[in-house]
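Retro notes - structure team

What went well: the batch runner handled both jobs without manual restarts.
What didn't: labels got mixed up in the shared folder, which is why I'm recording both outputs here explicitly, each with its sequence directly above its tokens.

Job 1
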Amino acid sequence: MTAPGRDAEAADREAVLAANTALYESLERGDADALTEVWLSGADADDAGGVVCVHPGWPMLRGRARVLRSYMLIMANTEYIQFFLTDVEVELVGDVALVTCTENILSSGEAEQEGELGPLVGGKVIASNLFRRTADGWRLWSHHGSPVLTSGDEEDED
């Protein structure tokens, strides 16, 4: 028999992973409403201590409106994107959860002719997604993605 605390932690871990999955699935579908639902809202999301996002190669974005606008731009300018998450880890501390993962991304490159899907290109990003527990469930507070610029294995670094 597991201790009640372990059951609650397992439920929290499952809920955080579901929220993390919802982020990537909403991007794959280009679903602005679902993406908006993933992020922290209300007074907790305002500029001062609110949501933060760093897309690979972008400056830091603060505030819910700026962060959501950035995702809308990405979705509007991406014909196809799919995320294969690996190395997913969850750390829970009270009402905060950190999910780290590798985003293995497959997306369409620039098409030769308008109206056609461009060639598929791959990329890899290391991401940290910080969630906060709210009355409405776990919501994304901060996303930071850093591109992986090397293709070598960890063993090669020794």
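Job 2
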Amino acid sequence: MAEKLMKYADAVAKYDPVFGLEVHVELSTNTKLFCPAHIEFGGEPNSQLTPVSLGLPGSLPVVNKTAMDYAVKLGLALHCQINEWSQFARKNYFYPDMPRDYQISQYDKPLNGEGYLDVELDDGSIFRVPIERAHVEDDAGKNTHLGGADGRIEGADHSLVDYNRAGVPLVEIVTKPIEGAGDRAPEVAGAYVRAIRDIVRSLGISHARMEQGNMRADVNVSLHAGPDTPLGTRSETKNVNTFKGIEKTLTYEIRRQAALLESGGEVLQETRHWDESTQTTAGGRVKTDANDYRYFPDPDLVMVHVTKDHIEELKAEMPEMPRERRARLKQEWDFTDRQMQDAVNADAVDLIEETVKAGATAAGARKWWLGEISREANSRGVTLQELPISAQDVADVEQLIAEGKLNDKLAKQTVSGVLAGEGGPAEVVKKHGYQVVSDDGALDAAVDQALKDNPDIVAKLKSGNMKPMGAIIGAVMRATKGQADAKAVNKIVMQRIAQ
């Protein structure tokens, strides 16, 4: 039965939404957090295992130093208090995705304590998200539920478990309750997770491919009457792995909980799951509190000591952060605030930068990535990065235009050919014979014929009315199958009407 929903505008007018995010970021180390098992996405199931990752008796964990260094760098980027001494604990639960029946995590003594992240919203305003901690833990395995209609555990008759992911190092970034966002709560959540994705990629510590599970978020939502009233009961939607999904989860839960409270119902403290196909959340299990996990210090691991000197060494290795980088690039590229924000929203900043490095102008790179190529990505339902066209391809097209070998129409056809898998720009141009007509005789003849066929337009042009010029250029383009140089055509026409 479909759950009752309140209109979003009515929900946020009556209730104040409070939300929290737990973002899980898998670290791109070569080996797992506590053993030398190799990490490779998409490997043969249950092939990347050691006695430690299987939790076999007598096996002992050893901390991966690179993973801890990566975690410190992330803590620095999130303005966290880096604790010199941190401790791993056993988090006990009985799910089939963790073979030893407990997860090695950090609880009351995390590596990274309180911090914050300032995120930029679509209108350029800044919202500060408070962070409670960013602790290190090993990931669980992956369950695949079979026999049901949609791959979820409900309705399945059996499950398969792949333990390759069990033991992969990750950092869980836990926010404090986020208040004051009002009706922009979904936007703030999406911008925050995007900002984390950009940071970890800039640091080079995670691939942050949400579709591969490298990065995912648990979304906590509650409602209360206002800032001076107690927080409401929260729901926790687990493992949402798209930016839009995070935003839509928040929107849906606000509408669902508002309708429930309005009808006199009670919000359950429970885990829920986002269903992309129905664009809804569904109840899972009653939420377990921290004391139910029976945390206690892991007796096989000593406390981790990160010295102040080592923290300073890692701080010195920190690259330029995304916000500072975007500000620099905006100035270098001479983009307006709106142009830069459009590039950010389209996730095209890296692609534009690569295209500029390959020889294109910033304006030209922006035109292609946010124009023809972006429209193609939207029609295919994929990201810009997933399309079969590279920054070098776009720069090559721009070079052909600059050399006068392609006009705008032929350039668009060339890009379409690249996107269709016909090869690079040079191959597409050669295959279709794309070439700007530069022969003076051929252009002269085409212009003369266009003027002869349109005497009324010629009269207007001679009288000083230049508005119909496009009709003449269009006629020449048709005659030359789109291969004429519009600037050259314009020049010849002006010479003719001056005679």
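One thing worth noting from job 2: Residues 33 and 64 are 5 Å apart (CA to CA).
We'll revisit the folder naming next retro.
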